[in-house]
Amino acid sequence: MTADPAQAVIRRGIVLTVLALIGVAVVMVMALKFTPVEANQGLAQKIFYIHVPTATVALWIAVPATGLASMLYLWLHDPRLDRFAAASAEVAAVFCLVVLTTGPIWGKPIWGTWWTWDGRLTLTLFLFFLLLGYHTLRGSVRDPLERGRFSAVLGIMGMALVPFIHLSVYLWRGLHPKPVVLKPSAPSLPWEMLRTLLTGFGVFILLYVGFVTLRYGLQLAQDRKEEADAA
Amino acid sequence: MGRAIRLVLVLAAKDLRVEFRTRTSLLSAAVFAALVLIVFNFARDPTAVATIDLAPSVLWVTVAFASVVAMNRAFTTERENAAFDGLLLAPVSREVLYLGKYLASLVFVLLVEAITLPLFVLFFNVSLGHALPGLVATMLLATAGFVAVGTVFSAMVVKTRFAELMLPVLLLPFMVPPLIYAVRTSAPLFQGRPLSEVLAGLRFLALYDVAFITLSVLLFSAVVDE
Amino acid sequence: MPPDNGPYLIAAYIVAGVIYLGYAVKLISEARRR
Q1: Is A42 helix (H, G, I), strand (E, B) or coil?
Q2: Longest pairwise C-alpha distance within chain C
């Protein structure tokens, strides 16, 4: 019985994901017990330690990776790129969902409203819908080659759309409440808070890698099965 | 180059001729636009918000919905008659093929908008006057952008099972930036501000058009070719 | 005195945890099925 490469990838994905999930629990405990409470916002500010790393990974790693892989697929036609793009897109959607749920839960006590059309949240909402569209498109195209091509086209169009969303949304602030967010780059962030935040970044990057590996492995197993059935 | 332009026009004319032979889709889109306007009229409280403040949003939402309805038909003729393969076999470059389709869809959607605007003026009792040139420019620029993307997506979804549903799902995120700027550009115009004040918005729309028409021309062959 | 909004914190952590765990369970159970 020859070793199934898909199973190896899946196993690796499960290990990484479980480790990362433990890491998420660690970050939550760190935030609850070992991080000071912010004076102006109170306890709810600690949502920041989950919300911000998730958003950063989603917007700066997952989505660009999907777009890049899509573009390269169109050029190189390597099915591994398409598989990776699909996995990354799905994980990006999950991360965006976390951003879009934790964001309003944080916003309600701080800004007094569940939703504001502020730049970042709105951009994440857009990306979420683009990713849903990507997923829907993939689901409705049978032929794997066509599916790969179509996904790549949508991926490239989506990437091109992002700067325009930035322009339309960020320039249209109007009367929105100013979010009182601590910027990670601000030197005024105390060490106890910074270390929790940095741990969060590490953990969520690992979670992304774990999820994508696992999802990739599942897709690989599926593709191999379909190929074997067709033969 | 001249030959390519002529081919584009021929292709677009062919599409439009097929469209207008039956006239049903233009009629459906126009009726749809009218219905949306009527719903908006009954859904608002004229004592609470002044018509003039609501006007841009009403106009552009109606235009957006009617455009999607109109764009759904872009490739349906080919699908229903399995004529698409024949079209692909013709010795025509993919870029020309795309531009022909794009032009036909654009003309069609602009016609729907041309019907919507007077209906809007009628139902909402807005006086356009000096705003008209700016409004027309906004309509042209905004429409050119999302029809470009819509034409590519139409080609993609035409073979899927829920094509009429897939197109709006994929296209709506791409319609939002042009819509935002269309509203931001029309609002001052409705208030009577001069065209010179909204040039930034028009520039944005033009930028969007350049970016997405270029991308669409380049990506179309990836959609239709093996 | 910082505002008392602890419940929101707990709610957010639970929601995030449920989404991540749920997705992991979905993937892992699919892996088990193969």
Answers
A1: strand
A2: 55
